[in-house]
Amino acid sequence: MANKKVNVGLIGLNGMGKGHLHDLQEMDTVVLAGVCDIVKEYADAVASACNTRAYYDYREMLDRAGLDAVIIAVPHYDHPQIAIDAFERGIHVMTEKPIAVHVNDAKRMIEAYDRAKQLAPELQFGIMFQERTFPYYRKIKEILDSGELGRLTRATWIHTEWFRSQAYYDSGDWRATWAGEGGGILTNQCPHTLDMYQWLLGVPARITGHAHIGKYHDIEVEDEVTAYFEHENGMIGHLIVTTAELPGTNRLEIIGENGKLVYEDHKLVLHKNKMSMLQYSRETSERFGNMGQEQIEIAVDTETPVGHHVVSEKFFERIRTGQGELIAEGTEGIRSLTIANGIMLSSFQKRTVDVPIDGDAFEAKLQELIRTSRYVKKAAVIPPIHEDFSKSFGTKL
Ligand SMILES: NC(=O)c1ccc[n+]([C@@H]2O[C@H](COP(=O)([O-])OP(=O)(O)OC[C@H]3O[C@@H](n4cnc5c(N)ncnc54)[C@H](O)[C@@H]3O)[C@@H](O)[C@H]2O)c1
Question: What pLDDT digit, counting tens, does each position of 184-205 carry?
Fold first, then answer.
């Protein structure tokens, strides 16, 4: 469909949906062919401001709006079914993260995509992992892919810049409940961190997780997690995340035989060994020696545009031309979800779990948590939808 504008429908018009609307507004390669929210007043407000049609049931929009593509920005449990329904109608999908709440659902989604692609090989499935556009992470990936660090031995990521207040958790009745969200920090905030971990370093072969449930917030899901990863190549990994630290930290150390890469405070430093640590260890006669290091601050291009709109633009570009980088293939979403589910399963079962994880065991545990939940959520304080959408988004759509 080269040169043709993409008819796009947006499902979910509150928090993240507003961001998507804003991005769509900036693009001249798309037409907003319909918007959908189960809250009628949201759908009506956005539709009238953007001069498009409102739908309150996404299936109706998929059937009637003449869509080429759909963006899914609703709470996570609904991502799989909406995507499956879109694929069955030959509609391209960009889903918000996480791909799903549990790996069984993600597999159903991927199977539906594979089936649909047999009929329409050009069908695209993207997932919003906008952090893959971030320049420091891209540079780290470039260095790792070049093999400069040699054999990797350890990666440690302290990522606690995910502070969330009680007011945040109270701002939606689905948030931070087993039935509404299916998890806490690993399901909502850390899909980005986990995707980046697997993008840079791969999915671990074994996972040991320790998750604290509602430790600092009145919620029934995890808000503090420490995990230990073992990779097939012998590398070990650590992940420390929480929504209850101020100030937060984002420090990633990746160590290989040839040195250490450290990212923190928007600075990337390579501590480069004068020779391989493994070779030095084998060959030196020094008992407590060190071959010495060179410290190099890595230059990073921070001028290139990044973020959600870049991911969306590339998604639409791929649909229109069949070319270009899709920042994150939707099917890759199962990798971060595997790590998230694996950490929780390990924590619940108090043992190390192997990857691929037992998806049935995780789903059964989730169902049990939903069934036995005694958690009573305070009345949700839902932020009002933006009063005047035309001011924010204009009528360009
Ligand atoms: N990529 C990112 O950085 C990022 C940031 C924030 C949120 N998200 C993701 O976006 C999704 C939505 O989160 P949010 O914070 O915008 O939630 P939200 O509660 O603010 O908004 C969700 C909207 O979806 C609507 N909705 C719910 N079920 C629906 C359905 N079946 N059909 C149509 N509309 C429906 C709700 O009425 C609401 O307006 C989540 O999966 C979240 O993980 C991603």
Answer: 999 999 999 999 999 999 999 9
